[in-house]
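Record type: monomer structure entry
Structure origin: computed from sequence
Chain ID: A
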Amino acid sequence: METPSVAHKINSQKRTNDVLLSENVDFAGLLLSDPVQKGLISAGFERPSPIQLKAIPLGRCGLDLIVQAKSGTGKTCVFSVVALESLQLKSSALQVLVLAPTREIAVQIQDVIKNIGVYLPRLACHTFIGGLPVKDDIQKLKRCHIAIGSPGRVKQLIESGLMSTDSIRLLVLDEADKLLEESFQDQINWIYSTLPENKQILALSATYPEYLANHLTAYMRNPTFIRLNISDPALLGIKQYYTQVPHHPLPNKDLETKTKAVVEILSSITFKQCLIFSNYQTRAQNLCSELQAQGWPTTCIAGSLDQKERLEAMNQLKTYQCRVLISTDLTSRGIDADNVDCCLYCRHLVVLMLIK
């Protein structure tokens, strides 16, 4: 049985030490079950990254974990393996709840878990996100071992009695620093209060301000901290450049100047796909229209779009149907797209460029 690769191909290009171990260790050395090992191999995972080697064994022991590691180093695989190894598949009850700060991250997490769990018999793993019909969620909840969702929709389902939390034994907070911001805090606290007392909690993120790490301990029982590269969250092998653009008091002229700078950059470098971040939805959509008019295969994703449009935009990026995706901060966390090797940040009077 073949599944799409959700892992980086470690031999396709030179890998840096933040994602590649110097020791010759494979997943068999982590004493995982045969179905999970086979799933990892078919999903493209060849060897554990440093964070996977440290965190997976401790997670399988049932410890509460606070995990900090750089974006792109394999944190999703960590909690996916721990979740899959914890399941009682003979039961149809919900046993694992994964919370994510955006709908797009939730969908991506589901892809990873289903691909790694492809050899687990009758595994039921579903997403529960806003913008889609609740009636579809009711059908999914008839048999669901792992639920991945945005806090708002998950709270709504629990509150209405549609999602039972009685059998949940593992709670995962992905991008935990975002989930514990003020905009999510009440929802997270409410969901947490409905869960059984005897549960394991995994909190994962690329950054943890010290106050946040202390705050997380209130949810946990003697958590173990696994923190790699605390002082330097930037991935090795990324080159950064910036271009200053002149200011214009008229917003339309300001956008015109930035658009010109973006087009000049895209025309002067070699890249497979590019992510462009804008801090305003209208600017993102206007820039998208301008690039399309100039012949660049471009799509846009923003919170104002219908959820199906947002999912289609992400699908176009991941299936290489567009060269450029223009986004608000919806895709600034946790989005994995193999062909993206350039990012542009259009902020204030600066265009910042990151190149793999």
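Annotation 1: The chain has a mean pLDDT of 86.
Annotation 2: The radius of gyration is 21 Å.
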